[in-house]
Design brief:
By secondary structure, the protein is α+β, with helices and mostly antiparallel strands. It contains 5 helices and 6 strands. It starts with a strand and ends with a helix. The chain has one domain. It is 38% helix and 11% strand. The longest helix has 23 residues.
């Protein structure tokens, strides 16, 4: 329920001022879930985002846990870079250590993906995308949502989104590492060259750098 107090009207208003001390009570009825006056296919965009992000999450999870087929020659998958421990020539500190528990899954990607994953999970663009697509919060502008209250990002668990700025600092380091990977991907046994893998890795860095440049600290 909104309350309008008496006093002078706002600039451009056509109504006369209310007598001082008087109030008008305006009752606003919340829309039910999915209710809207929009005539367009507003549900298409959140649906496509949902399908796209779900596909990416499934694929990236599979790619990260398999722990193999992530390098060839001077190329290494961005999912596995930097390779802190692993069996490829790109590994910084050698192969999987002997003390690694046998029951614990080992994949070089799992040692590093938490950082870029945290950056993406908490960035403003992705928040807007998965809030709408997965939580229907709201599903689209002027469309009713399933919840009746709004606490914002000032309470648990969404207050954790504020760690974004710290993941941003880590993302800078990853951007440097991936840029070095592009340089290495341009050197072959017979000298300098540009292959399809070199171009793909370079495009990845350019797009990540663009996204980084648009992200406020």
């Amino acid at each position: 329920m909104n309350v309008i107090s008496g006093g002078a009207p706002s600039p451009g208003a056509s109504r006369p001022p209310l007598p001082a001390g008087e109030r008008i009570e305006v009752r606003v009825t919340p829309r039910s879930f999915g209710e809207t006056m929009r005539a367009d296919i507003w549900w298409l965009q959140p649906l496509l985002v949902f399908l796209g992000l779900t596909t990416f999450i499934v694929y990236s999870t599979w790619a990260a846990f398999q722990g193999k087929n992530y390098y060839v020659g001077n190329y290494i998958s961005p999912f596995y870079s930097p390779e802190i421990l692993g069996n490829s020539p790109h590994s910084w500190f050698g192969a999987k250590p002997a003390w690694w528990p046998g029951w614990l899954i080992f994949s070089p990607a799992l040692l590093v993906l938490w950082a870029p994953g945290g950056f993406r999970l908490t960035c403003y663009y992705y928040r807007g995308a998965y809030y709408k697509a997965f939580w229907a919060d709201p599903p689209a502008c002027t469309v009713g949502e399933p919840r009746k209250t709004y606490w914002g990002e000032r309470s648990f668990p969404l207050i954790m989104q504020n760690v974004h700025r710290y993941f941003l600092y880590l993302a800078v380091l990853f951007l440097i590492v991936l840029s070095v990977d592009v340089w290495k991907a341009a050197w072959f046994p017979n000298g300098f060259g540009i292959g399809v893998g070199t171009i793909v890795l370079a495009i990845n860095v350019v797009l990540l750098g663009h996204a980084f440049a648009l992200t406020p600290a």
